[in-house]
Amino acid sequence: QQPVQSPQAVILREGEDAVINCSSSKALYSVHWYRQKHGEAPIFLMILLKGGEQKGHDKISASFNEKKQQSSLYLTASQLSYSGTYFCGTEKLENEKLTFGTGTRLTIIP
Amino acid sequence: DTGVSQNPRHKITKRGQNVTFRCDPISEHNRLYWYRQTLGQGPEFLTYFQNEAQLEKSRLLSDRFSAERPKGSFSTLEIQRTEQGDSAMYLCASSLKGPGNTIYFGEGSWLTVV
Asked: Does B14 score more than 70 pLDDT?
């Protein structure tokens, strides 16, 4: 079953923060986050493997709440380069394929 | 470039024709995935391989679609008797088997059926 992302779209001014959520109706083993720019391949951002795990690099971080079966991606002090569509990919079992969410379109304006 | 390579990058074909896409994964990766993506949607799983074994096929994959990975290296995705609804970007991805391994995507092959 496809995970649900919210919001569907968000527009921010440069420097503002954003949170993107990914929820599943099934128990999850892992959550993978990707960013995709129009006409390009999805680019890997990070993987979260354990419930409650929080990861981050630079100004992008994420958390994974295993009990709630959801993950959140945090973008701090957004830059123009953060624009794109963000997808979460979920793995129900170890070593299974990813099922991608509905996507969140992020637009950063100067 | 040592990333996932796909070709052709763009293909325009007439309805009813057959098309084949090729994917060369990252060399040491034993997992290879095919996804399909239409405008405004997330990648949709089609099938995946571990080495040369096809482990799973989506119910979305009709009998007009076939994928192979004959020697556990490159893979091909063939669509027979194409229909306009097949127009999409076909994404290939690869990874190592194991938890926590990153799945890397290729640039995709755009198919337009006219």
From this structure: yes
Q: What contacts B62, CB < 8 A, 6 or more positions away?
A: none
Interface of B with A (CB under 8 A): 33, 35, 40-45, 48, 56, 91, 97-100, 102-108
| A41–B43 C-beta distance less than 8 A | no
CB-CB under 8 Å, A2 with B43: no
Residues B54-66 have pLDDT tens digits of 999 998 788 999 9
Q: What is the mean pLDDT of chain A?
A: 90
Going along A4-97, which residue ranges are E strands? 4-6, 9-13, 18-23, 30-36, 43-48, 54-57, 60-65, 70-75, 84-91
Cβ atoms of A98 and A3 within 8 Å: the answer is: no
Q: What's phi and psi for B91, nearest 5 deg?
A: -105, 135
Confirm if B74 and B25 have CB atoms less than 8 A apart.
Answer: yes
Backbone angles phi, psi at B106, to 5 degrees: -80, 180
| Rounded Cα–Cα distance for residues A84 and A42 (Å) | 10
pLDDT given at position A93: 74
| Pairwise CB contact (< 8 Å): B42 & A87 | yes
The verdict on A12 touching B (C-beta cutoff 8 Å) is no
